[in-house]
Structures are given as C-alpha cells and as structure tokens.
C-alpha cells in the first residue's frame, strides 16, 4: 500500500461547545489518506462533509483530535513559517464558483494571489507568465487574465478556482463539492480536468460530494458520513458492491440508473439509527471487516459481518 | 432535395476548420467595476444634472467671494439693507434695486446715492451678501466634508473591527453603540457646544460624535456578509494575512456602499450644521455659514426677503443635488439593490 500522506485521528469539530445549541458537526472521525489517491467523502446535506474538509485545512480550529500531514501535526503548529509551508502543500477548491472569486479582482490577480503571498515569482513579467501557464493548464486562454470573474460562466469560474489552487503547487487538494453547482455537461469537464491534473502532477484529492455516481467515477476509496460520524470507509469497488453499514446500503439504494427494468424493481431502503439496537454497554467503533474496509459497528455486528 | 445538392458545384464550397482555442474567447470588452458603474450612472439624467449643479456650487464657493470687490465681513452701516441690484438685469425689472421704504417702493440705491452694485443686496450691517453667501457655502461644505470623512473613518474602523473579529469583541462593541445611540443626539450636541469653544471644530466634533454610528453599522453588516464568503476563505487557505484580506478582499467590496452612504451623510451634516446655526448654537459672527445666513435672513423676511431667499435656495439645491447623486450612485454601484 502507498505511503500515508494524511492521518486524521479522532477529529472533532463542535460549534457552540458547552451551550444548549451545541452542534457536533464532526464527531470523532479517524481515517487516512494515501499519497496519490482520491478519497471520496459522501453523505447527506449537513452531515459534516464540508466541515471535515474545512477543519483539515484549518479554516476552523478543531475542537479535538489531530491532523497529521506527512508526519507533522498541522493543528498544533504556531510559527508563521510552518503555517505558510503547510498552506502551500494543502489547497482547497470551493463549492460555489460564483462566490469563490473576488468580484473586484482581475483573474490575473486572483490566480497570482498565492504567488504573491508566498513570494514565488520575481517581477511582473514572471508573474504574468506563470498565470498564463496556469490558465492554459486549466484550458483557458491567456487573454482571460485581464478579465473580471463576472464575465465567465460557471464552469470557467470553477476552472479559475482550480488554477488558483494549483498556483502554489500543492500536493493535496480538498475539493469541496466542486461540481455540485455546475451544469451536468460541465461537471464532466471539471472532473476530467481534475483527473488529468492528478495524473500529471501526482496530486492527492479529498473529494467531497453528494453525487454518488460522480464519486464512484473519480474515487479510489470512499468514506460515508452520517451525522458527523464516519460510518463506513473502504475501496470504492468494495463499498459499492458489498456495503455493510445499513446507512451506506440505504444511500446506495437511492441511486437512480437509466434502466427502466432496474428502476421498476429498485427497492429504496430507509435508514433508522435505532435499527442498530445498540445496548448501553456496547462499544461502537470503527472495525476493519475486510482489509481496508472499515465499518462503524459494535462487536456483535462485527461478528455478524465477519460471518457473512 | 438530395439530388439538387449533388449537382451543386464543388468549388463554391470552402472548407473551414474551427479552432478550438477560440471556443472560450470573450469578445465583450473588459470593463472594471467602476467603468461599468459610470456607464450606468451616465444614463441617469437627474444625477448628471445634479453633478453639474454641485460642481458649479463648489467652484463658486471658492471663486465667488473674489468676484466682487466687497469683503464678506466688512461692516458698512450706510449701505445696510440694500436689495439686490445686478447690472444688465436691472432693465428687465428684476434685481433692479427696488425696495420698500415705508409704504412706497423706490430704488433704494438712488435714495441712498450708492453707485456700487450689490448683486445679492446687503444685510442689516451693510455686508455684501453675494460674497457672504459663497463664503458661507464654503464653510458649510467644509464642515460637512470633514464631518463625513471623520464619520467614514471612525465608522469603517469601528464597524470593521467589530465584525471582522466577531465573538465577544463584537458583543462588547455593539453594546457600547447601543448605549450611545440611546442618548438623544441633540442633547449630546448641545452639551458639547456648551463645553467647547464655539467655532467650526466644535460643530464638526458635535456632528461626528454620534454621526459615525450609522456608518459603523452598515460597515459591520457588510463585513459580516463578506467575511465568510468563499473567496475570503480561499485567501485564508492560501495563507493571506488579516491585513491582506481586509485590504484586498473586504474593503474593495464594501467601498461602493461606503461611498453611497457618504453621499447621504454630507447633506445630513450640512443640514445639521444649518440647524445648529439657526437655533443659535453654530458659528459666531462675523463668520458665516448657510445656517447663520438663513438665521439672519429670516428675521427680516417681511421687509428684506432676499436675505433669506438666496441662502435658502442654495441649501435646497445642495441637499437635492447630493441626494440625487447618492441615489444615482446607489443604482449604479449596486444594481441588485435597486428598488
């Protein structure tokens, strides 16, 4: 197995901690991301997928737990220099292409922002050259550099967001629902671009989405989240063919296929957390059922999974 | 149909290839936000006319006092209470120096044997009203502009800090504002003017002492709106410092609203200054502002209506012009907010 790039250990993100309206957006999740892979993170709206991504990249200060990048805990670092190094290695692509580009800045300045902050280029000439190169990488024209974001379509804007993230030459990119705001025909464009870039530059992705078929297409491994908890994680193929956790089964049963025969007979499963019937003294943790395939379950459930 | 097509001569067709690199081309000329706003405000006739009127008033406030040979503060009791007399216009029966003396209407200039022309007449102390009017306009504009700049400065800083740092800082700062806004403005202003030495700065401070609150609330709202937008988060993930985020991302986005609000603050300040002067808390003689001129004029409204007429018209023009420009700017800078 490939080298571990990122280890997330018992990550917790609580909002309004200790108050009546406490929200446990991310509740004690643990997983690893390997170098060069794409980990898809799926789950229903509001289950904490985006919060997980944002906490990993330090947009929020974690309530608890560790994020270890290449052996270094990124949440305990204090010095500005270390933080900057980390900012270069890890980047993010945002969900809403209309909100993620500053409407008052030219494309040139938007993409060059990372270059400026990290002092990666010397002089205007090199800066423009680098931006042009990045624009071409994401399939846009160099003439676009002097335009404002409102002149672009949604797909073009999302590609500008990708170019901005690529400017600092990151190793790891968190894609926070990068395609959910786009037209279906444009979704493929952006996803294919991400795939090409991964092959070219050896990038590692955390791909957050709720479009299951798209996640299956792009991911090597998939994690399923439910109410702030990671309920199942495993290789994409295994997870799709043999889902173990009832929530994953419910989620997969909801995928429509363009096949009338299949659709007529498709059984949609519901999921009720009470169906587990956990006892008070049972410990519910992530357990490895088959190599690399973890499920959140009790010992009793684990045994029954093993048998099956 | 298909048969006909086959008979078409081959040489009348030309093969073209589409260059895929042109697919993403944008032909529309690139316009910055401000160029775009200018295109929109150009169509707003009221705002454009107001701009010309305002420009005229501002220019006159600087050159007006020097267009006539009289000093705005020079008292000449023998020339007191003269009606307006303008060369050229006098033949048509307007501004011809006619005024009431007792029950009769006479040419006062002839009665008093005065050869000079006082374009807008004189006041009860014989000071030339034309030069006084523009001098007064200059001081009113100065007070309003400085007060507005102070409002913007404090308001943006206070509102910006309150919203950007949020949490407890925001709570404490907003409670302070609520206390301040609970005290009636006029009470604070009168107390301030009693304590301070009367003069331009006393009025400016009196206007600014609570005037920044409105601006700070607007700025706070805007910063709250923008600080969690994804483009700001993107800048954070790139490692941008707070000063960079504020300077490059937040300020340019709220600049339009600050300018619009300032355009409405200036006429309010002019009006407030006039009000203070009118109730006798403003500038002291011989200094003049539009407020003191109106105050002087209204005492002689029955016999010397010109003394009230000119400053009143000017202050109305200023108010209307500023408000129409502000309206036009709001529509131009923030098309989504329209109606």
UniProtKB/TrEMBL annotation, chain A:
Domain annotation ABC transporter: ranges: 6-252
Pfam families (alphabetical): ABC_tran (PF00005), oligo_HPY (PF08352)
Gene: oppF_5
SUPFAM superfamilies per record: P-loop containing nucleoside triphosphate hydrolases
Protein name: Oligopeptide transport ATP-binding protein OppF
GO molecular function, one term: ATP binding
Keywords per UniProt: ATP-binding, Nucleotide-binding, Transport
Gene3D superfamilies assigned to the protein according to its UniProt record, in alphabetical order: P-loop containing nucleotide triphosphate hydrolases
Membership in a protein family: Belongs to the ABC transporter superfamily.
Keyword ATP-binding recorded: yes
SMART domains in UniProt: AAA (SM00382)
Provenance organism: Filibacter tadaridae
Family matches, as InterPro entries: AAA+_ATPase (IPR003593), ABC_transp_ATP-bind (IPR050319), ABC_transporter-like_ATP-bd (IPR003439), ABC_transporter-like_CS (IPR017871), Oligopep_ABC_C (IPR013563), P-loop_NTPase (IPR027417)
GO BP annotations listed: peptide transport; transmembrane transport
Superkingdom field: Bacteria
Automatic annotation (TrEMBL), chain B:
Family: Belongs to the binding-protein-dependent transport system permease family. OppBC subfamily.
The gene coding this protein: oppC_2
Record NCBIfam families: Opp3C (NF045475)
ABC transmembrane type-1 domain boundaries: 137-326
Record membrane topology: Multi-pass membrane protein
Annotated localization: Cell membrane
TM helices/strands, residue ranges: 46-68, 139-164, 176-194, 200-219, 250-272, 307-326
SUPFAM superfamilies membership: MetI-like (SSF161098)
GO cellular component, as recorded: plasma membrane
CDD domains for this protein: TM_PBP2 (cd06261)
Organism for this UniProt entry: Filibacter tadaridae
Chief location of this protein within or outside the cell: membrane
Gene3D superfamilies: MetI-like (1.10.3720.10)
Entry keywords, A to Z: Cell membrane, Membrane, Peptide transport, Protein transport, Transmembrane, Transmembrane helix, Transport
Entry-linked InterPro entries: BP-dependent_transpt_permease, MetI-like, MetI-like_sf, OppC_N
Name the UniProt record assigns to this protein: Oligopeptide transport system permease protein OppC
The keyword Transcription belongs to this UniProt entry's keyword annotation: no
Biological process per Gene Ontology, one example term: peptide transport
Presence of keyword Oxidoreductase: no
